[in-house]
Specification:
Layout lengths: L3 H19 L5 E6 L4 E7 L4 E7 L3 H6 L6 H17 L6 E3 L8 H11 L5
Parallel strand pairs: 1-4
Antiparallel strand pairs: 1-2, 2-3
Subunit structure: Part of the 50S ribosomal subunit; part of the 5S rRNA/L5/L18/L25 subcomplex. Contacts the 5S and 23S rRNAs.
Protein name: Large ribosomal subunit protein uL18
InterPro entries: Ribosomal_L18 (IPR057268), Ribosomal_uL18_bac-type (IPR004389), Ribosomal_uL18_bac/plant/anim (IPR005484)
Length: 120
């Protein structure tokens, strides 16, 4: 029987494989959620570099948020990463939820990124 960590890793790689298959050269919006914070990056897999990133640990967000572990924080991070990605010249991405289900904080982040101008 696989441990929880192995199961999460297996699920994340399965999702990532599908995302890369449909990407068609678009950057990947990769999300990681911990119990206290949420992190997001826009990654160009062809060049192997990060184009934009945001998290609840950013100084400007940290002051305005009550906690880094709720849907309001995730929505703020989504808007911030959309703003930074647009500045970097990225409009279309593919959403990589990793091993996390599309629900709660992950969904709030995705919807805020769409409102912020990213298309996926």
């Amino acid at each position: 029987m696989a441990t929880r960590k192995e199961a999460l890793s297996k699920r994340a790689s399965r999702v990532r494989r599908q995302v890369k298959k449909v990407a068609n050269g678009r950057p990947r919006l990769s999300v990681h959620r911990s119990s206290k914070n949420i992190y997001v990056q826009v990654i160009d897999d062809v060049a192997g570099r990060t184009l934009a990133a945001a998290s609840t640990l950013d100084a400007d967000l940290r002051k305005s948020l009550k906690t880094g572990a709720d849907t309001a924080a995730a929505a703020a991070v989504g808007k911030l990463v959309a703003e930074r990605a647009t500045k970097a010249g990225v409009k279309e991405v593919v959403f990589d939820r990793g091993a996390f289900i599309y629900h709660g904080r992950i969904k709030a982040l995705a919807e805020a990124a769409r409102e912020g101008g990213l298309s996926f």
